């Protein structure tokens, strides 16, 4: 009887160790959808498909090109959200000086892939300990704690410098 319990405990321990060794994409937030989720086709009505008179009238496929049923999806989304599709993708005149100042030393066109690679490495290296992964513990805030900004200390620093922060809480607490 003891040998059977020992073997069962050994098997459970082996399964626990194997479960903790799983690789793959690091999941710091550990959010899993258990339901069917939103219906992406229900968000915005799609345009009706048009069937040509003959199949020969169809244009040649253009991978990555415009879609005949939805030629301007970004503009349609902007219009659906109440914006002006003609102005989307352009920098408003009021913001041109800010953008010019921010890019005065140049800009790196590959910054997004670079940041994605660096963040993936950070998440992989801070994916939690064995039991945190096994029990699906959220380690997001612990992993990014070294990068977190102390909001109150930063607010005090700006106030000491004389900067006004109308959207921040009053200096003496809530009034």
Brief overview:
By secondary structure, this protein is an all-alpha fold. The chain is built from 8 helices and no strands.
Beta fraction: under 5%
Described by the principal axes of the CA atoms, the overall outline is flat
* Total DSSP E strands: 0
- The sequence of SSEs as H and E is HHHHHHHH
Helix content: 40-55%
Class based on secondary structure composition and strand pairing? mainly alpha
Mean pLDDT: 78
Number of DSSP helical runs: 8
Question: Could you characterize the architecture of this molecule?
Answer:
The structure is a single chain. With about 180 residues, this protein is an all-alpha fold. It has helices spanning about 1-20, 40-45, 75-80, 95-100, 110-125, 130-135, 140-145, 150-160. The chain is flat and about 80 Å long. It starts with a helix and ends in a 15-residue tail after the last helix. The mean pLDDT is about 80.
């Amino acid at each position: 009887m003891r040998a059977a319990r020992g073997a069962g405990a050994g098997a459970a321990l082996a399964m626990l160790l194997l479960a903790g060794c799983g690789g793959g994409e690091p999941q710091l937030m550990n959010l899993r959808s258990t339901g069917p989720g939103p219906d992406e086709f229900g968000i915005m009505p799609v345009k009706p498909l048009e069937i040509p008179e003959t199949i020969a009238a169809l244009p040649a496929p253009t991978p990555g090109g415009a879609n005949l049923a939805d030629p301007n999806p970004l503009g349609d989304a902007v219009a659906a959200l109440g914006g002006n599709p003609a102005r989307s993708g352009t920098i408003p005149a009021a913001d041109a000086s800010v953008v010019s100042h921010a890019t005065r030393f140049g800009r790196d066109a590959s910054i997004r892939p670079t940041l994605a690679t660096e963040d993936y490495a950070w998440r992989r290296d801070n994916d939690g300990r064995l039991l945190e992964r096994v029990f699906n513990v959220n380690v997001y805030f612990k992993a990014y704690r070294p990068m977190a900004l102390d909001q109150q200390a930063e607010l005090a620093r700006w106030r000491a410098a004389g900067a006004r922060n109308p959207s921040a809480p009053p200096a003496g607490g809530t009034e």
